[in-house]
Amino acid sequence: MKIVAADVIVSSPDRNFVTLKITTEDGITGLGDGTLNGRELSVASYLRDHVVPLLIGRDAHRIEDAWQFLYRSAYWRRGPVTMAAIAAVDVALWDIKAKAAGMPLYQLLGGASRTGIMAYGHASGRDLPELFDSIRAHLDQGYRSIRVQTSVPGINAVYGVAAQPSTDGKRYDYEPAQRTPLPAEEDWDTRAYLRHLPGVFEAVRNEFGPELPLLHDGHHRMTPIQAAKLGKALEPYDLFWLEDCTPAENQEALRLVRQHTTTPLAIGEVFNTVWDYQTLIREQLIDYVRSAVTHTGGITAMRKLLDFAAQYQIKSGIHGPTDISPVGMAAALHLDLAIHNFGIQEYMRHGSLTNEVFRQSFSFTDGYLHPGEQPGIGVELDEEAAARFPYQPAYLPFNRLQDGTVHDW
Ligand code: EZ4
Ligand code: CO
């Protein structure tokens, strides 16, 4: 089944997305997500200028061969742009194979290992009443697991906290990328954060009881000893996980954190290959793998990574913010349903314009996601709708400390 066309579609309904559409000689099309938040056009160029010409004429069924060819023939290894481009091709080819087989993709990955996919949502508040309202709103929407992010006294803008409350049941989520020509500057103070956070979790536990799974994202801001201190301080509140407690490109740092706390650790949304996890997994320094299908080479590479993790009882926690398109989200859901070592799936929900461009068959009922039964991954792209929303420059913010030093965001 020869590939006859491959098109890169960049669109910006609510936010920017990069989508690859591969067409075969018998008219089957497959979609892949290559969205890299704030660096979208670099993946679009990588695909258009360097990958699409290599795809024409190839057999769409040879997915493993395409993956190895794109990874090894580039010579230059790894990196978010390369791995997002490979992911887009990989997922589009899996979509095609599953459509050709007349099955939802999860059937080709071994079939369902569970009936539904536990999802967590993002609650946030600038103070406790606002945070409690946000948690209640998520519970009303059906979420059974909730990430808690909070403002910190003395810090103006904190990652993960919506700038305005949800009013009249109207949806308002935190969207980190802003449509600005330059990255917005935010401020940060780790000591203030460490003083404030345990009290917030104590208040949330007192209000909502011991059962509700609660998560928190440290977003790469702590040193190892600060992360160890926070993990220890949060132990009474029984977190489901503490995410990205350090900038984990130094994998060995997690040894120190691990020695001090039993709070479960989740890491990896900024990683893009199994090599970024080698020490973390082999030494059992984490509990959840946070990679996105979109940023880690697609279904083919994620399956291998999660099978490696499974040998150490480490589970999946696939990255699912709004900067993963519905195509990348659907791909994650098929994998979530099929693997044995599923942990939890992040699910922020996309806006209404995004849902106009990407027609989806996945569902969210009583806190559980399901990819649906459509052949393939179950997402169709409305190209006319996509064309109505051209690319708009948008960037993630960055941090400076009080003395002006740039800090991890
Ligand atoms: O900040 O995906 O756990 N989720 C996250 C996300 C990331 C964004 C960056 O593009 O940390 O909200
Ligand atoms: Co995160």
From TrEMBL:
Residues 129-264 form the Mandelate racemase/muconate lactonizing enzyme C-terminal domain. SUPFAM superfamilies: Enolase C-terminal domain-like (SSF51604), Enolase N-terminal domain-like (SSF54826). The lineage of its organism: Bacteria, Bacillati, Actinomycetota, Actinomycetes, Micromonosporales. It comes from Micromonospora andamanensis. Gene3D superfamilies: Enolase-like C-terminal domain (3.20.20.120), Enolase-like, N-terminal domain (3.30.390.10). This is Starvation-sensing protein RspA.
